[in-house]
Amino acid sequence: MRKEFDENSGWIVIGRPGYQGKSKDEQQAAWDKEYGKGGWRLAWRLATGEVLDFDGIFYHYVESYAHYFLMHPGDAKFLAVNYSYAYDKDLVTKIQAFDPHYLYQKPGRPNQFHHVALNLALEHRLAQPFKGSLPIQVREGKPGTDPSTWPAGWQWSPGRIPASHPEQIPNLDQPGWWQIGSIEHLYQSAKILQIKK
């Protein structure tokens, strides 16, 4: 369920960190040094001003995947019939592939959770359980490489899935590997860094 952070809870916004990618651990170590462990946090402020924690922004991922599959039932059926679950960069078990926190904010590993939103959207929201025997990698292909080398599920990357509520994307210029109006665009554009007052 979505949770809104209380703006009056002793935290102040000091910036928008943007896409971290491979520099996540280095950046977070710098924040630990500057603000102290537990002295900072990431949050997501939507265009309406609503401020969400990770579980809140993850809810938007699930909703966006569910909406996408409702609009593209052939894609939903293809995935459910042919695969056992989706994963991102690191192959995980099916149980782990349904846990949004399993690969989020783990040192030495990139954040991986969009595949969990896809899995939950199909199985829990749309009641289309996976029936295949093998998982599918759902990840964007590397720019400038031959598309035949891209992961089998590249077309369901979060950078290609439209946000179910694009009006919630802050009006910011946020260039990146994602498409404008996608759920990844919302995630990256709304991300803020807060520190304790």
Can you tell me the number of structural domains?
Answer: 1
> What's the number of helices?
5
DSSP, total strands: 6
- The portion of residues forming beta strands comes to 5-15%
Which stretches of 5+ consecutive residues score pLDDT under 50? none
Gap between N and C termini: 27 Å
Alpha-carbon Rg, integer:
17 Å
Please provide a written account of the structure.
The chain has 197 residues and is of the alpha+beta class. The chain has one domain (11-196). It contains five helices and six strands, in the order βαββααβαβαβ. It has helices at residues 24-35, 54-71, 73-82, 114-125, 183-190; strands at 11-15, 40-45, 51-52, 86-87, 136-137, 191-196. It has a four-stranded antiparallel β-sheet. Strands 4-5 form a two-stranded parallel ribbon. Strand 4 (86-87), helix 4 (114-125) and strand 5 (136-137) form a beta-alpha-beta unit. Helix 2 crosses helix 3 and helix 2 (54-71) crosses helix 4 (114-125). The radius of gyration is 17 Å and the shape is globular. The chain starts with 10 loop residues before the first strand and ends with a strand. The mean pLDDT is 91.
Helices and strands, with pairings:
Blueprint (H helix, E strand, L loop, with lengths): L10 E5 L8 H12 L4 E6 L5 E2 L1 H18 L1 H10 L3 E2 L26 H12 L10 E2 L45 H8 E6 L1
Parallel strand pairs: 4-5
Antiparallel strand pairs: 1-6, 2-3, 2-6
Helix pairs in contact: 2-3, 2-4
Short description:
By secondary structure, the protein is of the alpha+beta class. 30% of the residues lie in helices and 12% in strands. The chain contains five helices and six strands.
